[in-house]
Design goal:
7 strands, single chain, globular, 6 helices
Length: 211
C-alpha cells in the first residue's frame, strides 16, 4: 500500500524538469505569461505597503521562479526562502541562489522541522492531482494546508483549479468553492479571500490569521 500517494506528483514535476529544464515548462506551466501572473497574485497576499521586511516561504518552490520575479521587480522588502519535496529542484535552486535558505522536507512527516514565516505561498502545489483520486487529493490538500497555516504568522496563499469551467480535466484538482469554504471556516479561519479575478481557469485563496 502506498502511504504517500502524493509522491507521484513530485515524480511528475521532476520528469518535467528533466524534459524541459529550468523554464516555465520545467515546472509544468504551459504559458510563461500566465506563470508571471500567478507570481504577482501570490505576492499580493502581502497587504502591507510599507518597506518593512517580511519573511516569505515559497512552499513547492520548484526552480525558484518566484524569487526571480521578486528580484526583477525589486521587491526588497520580501525575505525569500524556498521549500520543496524534490531534491532535484532544491539542488537546482541552491545552485542558482546559494545565499537563500532552502528546505528539502515533507511537511507531513512528524519529524519535519520548519521555522515560522510571516507569509507562506503555495503556487501550483494543488493544481494537479494526476492519478490520485479526488478524495486522496482532498485529504492531502487539507493536511498540508493545515500544517502550513500553523507555520504562518500572518497569512498563506494557494491556488487550485476552478470548478467553473466548460469541462474538468481528470488529472487536475478542481475544488468546489463551498467545500473549500466549509473547510476553512471549520478548521482554519473565517478571514479569507478567494480571488477569481486574474483571467485563468483557477482561483487563489488567501487565508489570514485573525487580525
Amino acid at each position: 500500500m502506498n502511504t504517500k500517494p502524493y509522491l507521484s506528483i513530485v515524480r511528475h514535476y521532476e520528469s518535467c524538469l528533466k524534459d524541459y529544464g529550468d523554464s516555465h515548462r520545467g515546472v509544468d506551466w504551459p504559458d510563461e505569461a500566465d506563470a508571471q501572473t500567478r507570481y504577482r497574485v501570490m505576492l499580493e497576499v502581502i497587504k502591507a505597503k510599507s518597506t518593512a521586511k517580511v519573511s516569505l516561504l515559497d512552499f513547492g518552490c520548484g526552480a525558484s521562479h518566484l524569487h526571480e520575479y521578486i528580484l526583477r521587480y525589486r521587491l526588497d522588502h520580501i525575505d525569500y526562502s524556498g521549500l520543496d519535496l524534490s531534491p532535484a529542484f532544491i539542488n537546482l535552486s541552491q545552485r542558482k541562489f546559494p545565499s537563500i535558505s532552502y528546505y528539502n522536507l515533507d511537511i507531513l512527516d512528524e519529524s519535519a522541522s520548519l521555522p515560522d514565516f510571516d507569509y507562506i505561498v503555495m503556487n501550483g502545489v494543488f493544481t494537479e492531482k494526476l492519478e490520485l483520486t479526488f478524495e486522496e487529493m482532498l485529504t492531502y490538500f487539507k493536511d498540508v494546508v493545515t500544517r502550513v497555516f500553523n507555520k504562518a504568522k500572518i497569512a498563506i496563499a494557494f491556488n487550485v483549479m476552478s470548478p467553473h469551467v466548460d469541462w474538468e480535466r481528470q488529472d487536475l484538482f478542481h475544488l468546489p468553492l463551498d467545500l473549500l469554504a466549509a473547510f476553512l471556516v471549520k478548521e482554519l479561519s473565517r478571514d479569507f479571500v478567494i480571488r477569481n479575478d486574474y483571467g485563468l481557469y483557477e482561483y487563489t485563496t488567501y487565508i489570514y490569521r485573525k487580525r
